[in-house]
Amino acid sequence: MPLIALTGGIAAGKSTVASRLAELGAVVVDADRLSRQAVEVGSPGLSAIRERFGDTVIAGDGSLDRPALGAVVFSDEGARADLNAIVHPEVSRLSQEAFAAAFAEDPRRVVVYDVPLLAESRGAAEFDVVVVVHAPAEERIRRLVEIRRMTPAEAEGRVRAQADDAARLALADHVIDSSVSVESTVAATDALWPKLEATVRK
C-alpha cells in the first residue's frame, strides 16, 4: 500500500496539484486540515499553545487566533520550534488514522499526503514516493505580495521560515514545475498521474 507525499513551499502551487490529483481519483489527506483539527477548541493542542504563548494568541471565542500566532512564530525561530513540538506529533497521529482508513476502504487507491512541511519536520522515510511542487523562492515571494497582499518583508519572512529549495528538492522522486502557469502545472500533474497509479499497482 504505497503512500505518496506531496509537498512544496508556500505559494508554490501545491494546492493546485492536490486538487487536480483528487479530481483524478486520489485520496488526498490534508496536513493543514489536520493541523487545524489538532488545535480545535477544547483540544490538548490548543491548551498547550495557550500555556506557551499566552492569551494574546487566543481569539475572543476561545479559538486559536492564527494571525496573532503567525506574527509570533514567523519572526522567532525558537517560538516556531516550540509550536511545531506541540502540533506535529498530534498531526502525525491524525494522519496515520486517515491513511489507515483510506487503505481499509480500498488498498488500490492512490493515497496522497498533502504536507507543506515535509522537509522541515516529518521527513521522507515513511513515504514510498515524494512529489515536490516547485517554484523558485523569488517567484513565491512575488505571489505572496501580489496575490495574498503581504508586504515584501512579510512574504520573504514566510518563505525563509521554511526549508530552502535545495533541501526540499533533495527529497523528490518527482518534481512538478509550477513556475510558469496554472495550466502548465495542471498538465504536469496529469502527466504524472499514470506513474503514481503504476506505483500503487506494483
Describe the structure.
The termini are close together. This protein is of the alpha/beta class. The mean pLDDT is 92. The chain is globular. Helix 1 (14-24) crosses helix 10, helix 2 packs across helix 5 and helix 3 runs antiparallel to helix 5. Helices cover 56% and strands 12% of the residues. The protein has a domain at 3-26 and 110-201: P-loop containing nucleotide triphosphate hydrolases (Rossmann fold, 3-Layer(aba) Sandwich), CATH 3.40.50. It contains ten helices and five strands; from the N terminus they run E-H-E-H-H-H-H-E-H-E-H-H-H-E-H.
Order of helices and strands: EHEHHHHEHEHHHEH
Instruction: Indicate the CATH topology of the domain at 3-26 and 110-201.
Output: Rossmann fold
Query: What is the radius of gyration?
Result: 17 Å
Low-confidence stretches: none
CATH superfamily heading of the domain at 3-26 and 110-201: P-loop containing nucleotide triphosphate hydrolases
Let me know the number of strands: 5
Query: Span from first to last CA?
Result: 9 Å
Beta-strand residue fraction: 5-15%
Instruction: Examine the secondary-structure arrangement and name the CATH architecture of the domain at 3-26 and 110-201.
Output: 3-Layer(aba) Sandwich
Estimated structural class: alpha/beta
Fraction of helical residues: 55-70%
The profile of the biggest β sheet is: 5 strands, parallel
Q: Which shape, going by the Cα principal axes?
A: globular
CATH class of the domain at 3-26 and 110-201: Alpha Beta
State the assembly state of the protein chains.
Answer: single chain
List the total number of helices: 10
Query: What is the arithmetic mean of pLDDT?
Result: 92
Strand adjacency order, main sheet: 2-3-1-4-5
